[in-house]
Amino acid sequence: MKAIQLTEPCQANELVPTEVNIPELKPGYALIKVKAFGVNESEVTSRKGESSADFKFPRILGIEGVGVVEKVNPGSSFKPGQKVATMMGGMGRAIDGSYAEYMLIKEKNLIPFESNLDWSILGALPEMLQTSYGSLMQGLQLEKGDLLLVRGGSSTVGLMSSVLAHQMGAKVIASTRNQAKLSEMEKLGIDYPVLDDQDFVKRVNKIAPHKVDKVLELVGFTTLFQDMKLIKQGGFVCFTGALGGQWTLNNFSPFMIPTGVFLTSYAGEAKDLPTKYFSHVLKLIEEKKLVVPIAKVYHGLDEVGAAQANLESGKFSGKHVVVL
User: What is the CATH number of domain 140-265?
Assistant: First the structure.
């Protein structure tokens, strides 16, 4: 089969398909014919050789994907021809991932679904939907009527989280440092797209004079403590991402958290995205009640390098999706 297999760090334009063996079926796994996959920041990090210790060369990249079951073991609950989605579980890092014509995935990490949506839409969903849903429900315990601040709102997870939160009945303030992205955020139905500059706090205070109920933190420690000053007592802050690059803080003290504010985090897996909810979102998309934020669609493994380069440029809003 063809795959993007890395043997060492490289540039985006060096991501070229090569011939490798189709994975052999193992107990507890299913062989999936890949139809589409999203391109993620963590895969750019891995390509540069900057991933954590669980990543080793050689490796086929790709932490998420959708496709069709090709082969299963006797007694499996899955059947050949069935549509499935998957994400995380070590994909593209500890084990080979989705930048390939076939991928070998543990059955427990597969989400079955039925849909006639285009593969480009389906391929955009798994990782950003799982991260967004997990952050909102497990991290923030989001409720109808909440006022939510999404810091890093023009990122793929930020956009998806804003769209889902709005669908759940919350009001959303979403930040971006790129003024050109504000109109796109507004088109997605985000209630309050806000420019993140020196007047950011003033803008949020004007929208929420009594402070916000929940904060989804996607920028990291560079904005975390500023966000904590914008939240009500009894509110939740969920640390999910670090687009600013700072995941840790030296000399951290619990007393840096304001009294009565709850700080949590989210770093989940496929099991955190219920099959029922995945199907619910697909139905909302089919009924045109929810728009998936897609930046650009690419065709074939030959275009993976362009997809990563465009993602890295920061000039696009939404998900970059490769369809095979």
Answer: 3.40.50.720
